[in-house]
Structure formats: C-alpha cells, structure tokens
Amino acid sequence: MADRLQRVLIPDEGRDAPACQATFAPDNEVTLFEGDRLDLLASIPDEAAQLVVTSPPYNIGKEYEERVSLEEYCEQQRQTIREAVRVLAPVGSICWQVGNHIGKDGEVYPLDAVLYPTFKDFGLHLRNRIVWHFGHGLHCTRRYSGRHETIVWFTKTDDYVFDLDAVRVPQKYPGKRHFKGPKAGELSGNPRGKNPTDVWDIPNVKANHVEKTEHPCQFPVEVVERLVLSLSERGALVIDPYIGVGTTAIACIRHGRRCAGADLVPRYLEVARERVSAERAGVLPTRPMGKPVYKPPATSRLARLPTEWDSASEGQGEERGL
Q1: Is 73 helix (H, G, I), strand (E, B) or coil?
Q2: For residues 245 and 276, what is the distance between their CA atoms, to the nearest angstrom?
Q3: Which of 71, 150, 153, 245 has the lowest CB atom count within 10 Å?
C-alpha cells in the first residue's frame, strides 16, 4: 500500500502554503472553484485523491439548487459519483453525507438508500453507514421529527487507508478490567480511547452555533475532521464536489491535507475564502472536536417544566386514562 500512497501524497517538507486558488493544480493547498463540480473534477487527474467527502444537495428546493424529478436528481448524482470514482486512488474512500428527499406528497426518500445502487454500479465497497445524530431541527406534525442524517462510506478496493487511532474517543469505563481468563485483572480498554462507533452525536450548525454562516445547510467541521483524519494521510488530496462555505477545506488545513472543492454560488465561496484565511491565522471559531454535547443542568430555568404547561400535562393524562 505504501507504494500506491506515494503518488497521491505531497510531503510536508518544503511544501509552501499558497493562498486559495481558483483552478486546480496538484500543489495547491486549497482550490475553491467557482462553477460546476463536473468541470472541477474533469481538471483533476485519475487516481489523484485519497478521499472524496461531500454533502450534496438533497433536491428539496433550497436556494442553491433547482428542484427536479427524483430520477433526474439521481442521474446528476451518478455523473458526480462517476467522476469521483475516476479521481479516487485505489486506497481511497468516498463519503456521501445525505439526509432525506421529501416528495411533494410528503413521502420520505432516504437518499443513502436511493443512491446505494449507483455506488455499487461503480464497483465500490460499503464499509459503514454512519448515523449522524443531532438534537435540533424542524418540528414535524405528521411524522416523527428528523434528528439524524447518514454518511455512507465506500472504498474503491479492499486495501484502503483507515487510521482508527486518529479518531478514538474517551472510554466510558477506562478503569474496567478483564473479569476472568488469562488477562483477569488487567485493564480491558485501549489507552488511546475507544472506537467512536457508527453513531455520531455531534450538534448540527443552527442559529447559535459558533460556526454558523449564511449557508442554510452547513455541516459542522467535526464531522469532516473525523473522516479526514481516519481516511486520509497528511499531504493527501481531499475533494469536495459541493464545498459550499468551505467546511471541508477547514478540516484539511487543520490537519495537513490538500483540498479541492467547487460551488456555483459566488458568495458562498467568498465566505469559504474568509474562513480559510481565518483558519490559517488561527482565529476561526469552531466547536472543539470531541466536546461533549451540552446538557442543561436540572436547575436551569429552561430545563424546568413551565407552570403554564401544568394544566396541559394533566389534560393529556386524563385523555389516556392515567
């Protein structure tokens, strides 16, 4: 595997840190391409990237997309995935972070399931279907409110980069010891921490989030950080075909990777360039990786049942015969 890595890595030694570039070149630290993702991908050589990670439009009519039929949307995604596979190194991974497409009749189409056959058509191997859980979002009245999205992680071959130690999290019971057997009495955990599993509890970027920009569907740096750290090596090229306000670029700069991404909206790329500059200067506000999800103390006014709801709660109990 080391031989194959050699041609997709650029050593840290002697590599300059140029400003964001508008067109792709192999030695760019960050490429922010204004235009169609297929035009960016076409400019990148075969097998040049070690990781493709993105959160594409969900075809739900956001300001940066035109809502089309589900069939047309899937064809657009097929075109992107085809090019992503072409630029991916044999040891590389593709991570597609998606949620649900909601039909005009309210029917839910989970995009990871909808797109799975497309990834398989290109010979990719599914390694994980990661559930990203978050606590805030729209409140539904005719179905359970959605509080998760997924990341489908595919590899090109069975010989792929995966550094678990880079993303381990603290043990729940670090003092736990083997109960019996030849290791009885010895510590049973890994001193580096435990596997973060395939369920990630990371707050989404909403109004009061420290990372919030004008983008309506921005994903947090920590989600990308885990993927960049575990699925690529220092100096590797990471590609985000739908880079938005540059979250993937931030994770790459922070951890010594190169990044190339595209977006159609000029003002998103302007925000991305500002964020890249702030990250390089060490002043970009982000939620620290691994920070526990906030839980309000029981004494907090916001955590107590308001007196106005007392009568409503009693009414619910009467209706249920409690």
Answers
A1: helix
A2: 10
A3: 71
Instruction: Write out pLDDT tens, residues 269-282.
Output: 999 999 999 999 99
**C-alpha distance from residue 218 to each of 5, 92, 135, 207, 246 (Å):** 31, 25, 15, 11, 9
Q: Taking Cα atoms as reference points, which of 121, 127, 105, 99 lies closest to residue 216?
A: 99
Q: Say which amino acid occupies 247.
A: T
The number of distinct structural domains making up the chain is 1
Angle, alpha carbons 94-100-106 (nearest 5°): 160
pLDDT above 90 as % of the chain: 65
This prediction has a pTM of 0.87
The amino acid that residue 265 corresponds to is V
Q: Tally the C-alpha atoms within 13 A of residue 30's C-alpha that lie toward its C-beta.
A: 28
- In terms of phi and psi (left: phi > 0; alpha: psi -120 to 50; beta: otherwise), the region of 320 is alpha
- For 52, the domain range is 2-319
CA distance 165 to 172: 16
21 touches 30 (CB < 8 A) = yes
Instruction: Give CA 288 to chain center in angstroms.
Output: 15
Q: CA 84, CA 41: separation in Å to the nearest integer?
A: 7
CATH number at residue 120: 3.40.50.150
- Alpha helices, DSSP H only, in 174-216? none
